Input
Amino acid sequence: MIHTESEKRGWVVGITGASGSVYGIRLIQVLLEQGYPVHIVVSNAGWRVLSEELGWSVGKKEQVLKEHFGGLPGKLQYHPVADIGATIASGSYQVEGMVIAPCSMGTLSAVANGTSDNLMTRAADVMLKEGRQLVLVPRETPLHAIHLENMLKLARLGVRIIPAMPAFYFHPKTIEDLVDFQVGKILDSLRVEHQLFTRWNGGEAASRLPDGK
Output
């Protein structure tokens, strides 16, 4: 569903301690650029990964978020992961849905088993009970049977599982290209329009076939 500017509801974006925090950061940026309100939840391990992978100074969390996202059209709201009384912990608070990118196996397990012991997992549980969109972006390899069983359990509940698996058919030139592909796939699932990557059009080989067959 596409909303007008005045009708846009917010999205919740969670960032955990799995590698790949850049996916969540880029997703937040694109949503804010399009004028969506965004609620951010970052786990304690997630802040550490932001520091180690992106070089963020995370001593003053709200300040660093303002430095990176300030000035964009959408409204940004940060919620500490321990704040279980935050708006997004209640099903009566209206949002479109939630994305956890990247999603650690620990968080995925907690969501799969209904363990709402912090705001991240509580907000995800709210998405499930209210029938709203929930997208998880696991970033782990290799995967063992428990990981796979938890993903299957969530998929059967309607959760979209979009692993961090970039494609190469569009001939990416930079790491940013690979990140944008992944974020674009997330946005496709949310039905949010974007132009982050070139879509497959059949390829050169297909265009050479007679009658396009």
User: Anything to note?
Assistant: The helical segments are 21-33, 44-54, 61-69, 105-112, 119-130, 145-156, 175-190, 203-207. The domain at 5-207 is CATH 3.40.50.1950 (Rossmann fold).
